[in-house]
Design brief:
By secondary structure, the protein is α/β, with parallel strands linked by helices. The protein is 35% helix and 30% strand. Helix 3 (94-104) packs across helix 4 (109-122). It binds adenosine-5'-diphosphate.
Length: 305
């Protein structure tokens, strides 16, 4: 069963700008899928159309077998949506915001209360249930958006840049929570420009650039294609007169550190051995950006050639 099918989606905004130029992809039920791409690539436009927030110019969307044009209400019922912008009434209290949302789906307060409690507890918001939303931190507001999106028990959760503005610790606990939901059978589709996020959570990714899908594959396969890894090496001496490190290429970053590009098949130990052999005294080595990141930059550059 396909949770989402998007076919030949095109969007030209009123000002004449063509944001989508025939986007097609599909997401299987139960998948954890990321739509990746640089800012302005068309991620929000694509998901905005799926969620009924943006009108498409042409193409077809179907969610859990229901067509967006023919059965918009059914599509709405299948989806839980977490938009980028906080769009709750910030004077309202946390619990009320979630319960009101249940009301929009015809679920009574009494019926919604137990699940509301479960969600707020799972998302670490239970203590704040009587607090007006405006008094929450950014991370709490984001979690409130997730609780609200889930209250009607949708089959597909769509999140637009879910961890934008969320600090690293909260980000990791949100990842864990989303992974747990996915393991329970919820299909999750997110947009992100944090590649680390896709790498940590998503089994499959599509990369969009300038309104076109340029790659659609498993995260594993994508990572396999990436044949370069980068390490930052800090030295105890100076980087002034470094010997050549052939076959690796290096780039001096500052007086005490340099970047080394290696084939990804090289282990950290082998790299250490080479540096040792050349008489370089290493204070520390750490991986630079993740591999998906360099892959991503290469792919976008290639698609523009
Ligand atoms: P992303 O989510 O990948 O950052 P968007 O889907 O938000 O990208 O935007 C894709 C392109 O469409 C961008 O160039 C953006 O400036 C443009 N765009 C978005 N919304 C509008 C709009 N309402 N009117 C005109 N252009 C828009």
């Amino acid at each position: 069963m396909q949770a989402l099918t998007v076919e030949g989606l095109e969007k030209t905004y009123d000002n004449g700008f063509q944001a989508l130029k025939g986007v097609s992809f599909s997401v299987e039920s139960g998948e954890f899928f990321a739509l990746l791409g640089p800012n302005g690539a068309g991620k929000s436009t694509t998901l905005g159309i799926v969620c009924g927030l943006v009108r498409k110019s042409s193409g077809r969307v179907s969610v859990c077998g229901d067509d967006l044009d023919q059965s918009p209400q059914a599509v709405r019922r299948h989806l839980g949506v977490v938009p980028q912008e906080f769009n709750f009434n910030s004077f309202e209290k946390v619990e009320q915001i979630v319960l009101n949302q249940a009301g929009y789906y015809g679920i009574s307060r009494k019926e919604a209360l137990p699940y509301c409690e479960t969600l707020l507890k799972q998302l670490d918001l239970w203590e704040k249930r009587h607090t007006p939303a405006r008094m929450l931190s950014g991370g709490m507001k984001r979690r409130l958006m997730i609780a609200r999106a889930l209250i009607h028990k949708p089959r597909v959760l769509i999140l637009d840049e879910p961890t934008a503005g969320v600090d690293i610790e909260i980000r990791r606990s949100m990842w864990e929570f989303l992974q747990k939901l996915n393991q329970q059978g919820l299909t999750i589709i997110l947009t992100t420009h944090y590649l680390e996020e896709a790498e940590a959570m998503c089994k499959r990714v599509a990369i969009i650039s300038e309104g076109k899908i340029i790659t659609n594959t498993s995260t594993k396969a994508l990572l396999k294609q990436a044949d370069k890894a980068y390490f930052v090496v800090d030295v105890t001496g100076t980087t002034e007169s470094l010997p050549a490190l052939s076959p690796f290429s290096i780039e001096v970053l500052d007086e005490h550190s340099f970047l080394v590009e290696v084939n990804k098949s090289i282990s950290l130990n082998e790299l250490f051995a080479v540096l040792n052999e050349k008489g370089i005294n290493v204070a520390s080595i750490r991986p630079e950006a993740n591999r998906l990141e360099s892959m991503f930059i290469d792919l976008v550059a290639e698609s523009k050639q």
